[in-house]
Amino acid sequence: MLIDFHTHSTASDGLLPPAELLARAQRRGVEALALTDHDTVAGCREALEHPIAGLTLVPGVELSCHWGGATIHIVGLGMKIDDVALQHLLVSLDRLRRERAERIALKLARLGMPGALEGAQRLAGAGPICRPHFANWLVAEGHVDRVAKAFDKWLGNGKSADVKTQWPALQVAVAAITDAKGVAVLAHPLNYRFTRTKLRALCSEFALVGGAAIEIVNGRQAGSDIALLKRLAEDMGLAVSIGSDFHREWAHGADLGVDTAVAGDLPTVWELLF
Ligand code: AMP
Ligand code: MN
Ligand code: MN
Ligand code: MN
C-alpha cells in the first residue's frame, strides 16, 4: 500500500495547490496522505473540505522548533486542526517567520540585493514566508541561477543571509500536537547531521515529552539509512512513519507515495491513526 505522511503545498513552500497535490497523489495510487505544510494548516483545511475518492486525508503540519542548538522539524498527524492552543502556536510561528524574513531581507539588501521581503512575501502569498520563497525570488531576479545555489551562497545554515531564530522548544511543538489529539513524528532524523549519540539523546527526549514516531523514509533515502533509522526506532521504542517530503516535481526528489512494506513488522503511525 502506498501512503505519504509528509508533503507540502502552496500553503507553505510547495509548488502545487492542495487540490492539485491530492489529485497527483490519487493518480499515483496513494491511499492515505497527510499535507504537512510548514507551520500552517491552511492548505490542510482546504484539502479536508474537498475530499477525493479513494484517498484518505490525514490532518497534518510540520512544526519548526528548537533542540540542542538546532532547528528541528516535528510532523503532526491526525490532530484537531482547530485546537485553540495549536492555533496560538501557529500564530506565534507566523510572527517569528515574519520577523526572520525581515532580518533575512535586511542582510540581502546589505549584500546588494534589495526588495527581498516584498519579493518573498509575494511568492508566499497568505502563508508563512519560508526560505525557499527567498531562494525562488533570488533566482527570478537573476541574482543566482539555481535555488540550491541561493542556499549555498546566502540562505543555508550559517551562510551570510542566514539568521538565528528563537523557535519554540521541542516539547512545546510536541505538546501542541499531542494536546490536539495528534501524533508527533520526528521528521528526517538524519538531516540534522547530529552524531549518533546526540541523535539518540534527541530521540529519548522526544519520546519523554510525548513523541510517538520517527520518519524512517523521508524522500529519496538510501537503504542503509532506512535500516539505521529502523534500528533507531526500535531501540528508542518509537513507532515509524514514512513520507516523500514532496515539494514539487523534481528529478532529484521523490514523488508522492511510499510503500508501507518498508516498515516491516515495526509499529507504525498508520496503526496508531487508523
Ligand atoms: P524554512 O523552514 O523557512 O527555514 O525553510 C526550510 C525549507 O527550505 C526546507 O523545508 C526545504 O524545503 C528548503 N531547503 C532547505 N535547505 C535547502 C537547500 N539546501 N536547497 C534547497 N532547498 C532547501
Ligand atoms: Mn520545505
Ligand atoms: Mn523539514
Ligand atoms: Mn517537509
The domain tally reads 1
Distinct ligand kinds: adenosine monophosphate, manganese (II) ion
Main sheet strand line-up = 4-5-6-7-8
Rounded Rg: 18 Å
What is the second-level CATH architecture? Answer: Alpha-Beta Barrel
Name the CATH superfamily assignment.
Metal-dependent hydrolases
Strand proportion, as a percent range, falls in 15-25%
Number of strands: 9
Low-confidence parts lasting 5 or more residues at pLDDT below 50? none
What is the 3D form?
A: globular
Percent in helix: 40-55%
Structural class, from helix and strand content? Answer: alpha/beta
CATH class value? Alpha Beta
Mean pLDDT: 98
Q: Helix and strand string, N-terminal first?
A: EHEHEEEHHHHHEHEHEEH
Could you give a short account of the major beta sheet?
A: 5 strands, mixed
Counted by DSSP, the helix tally is 10
CATH topology: TIM Barrel
- End-to-end span in angstroms? 14 Å
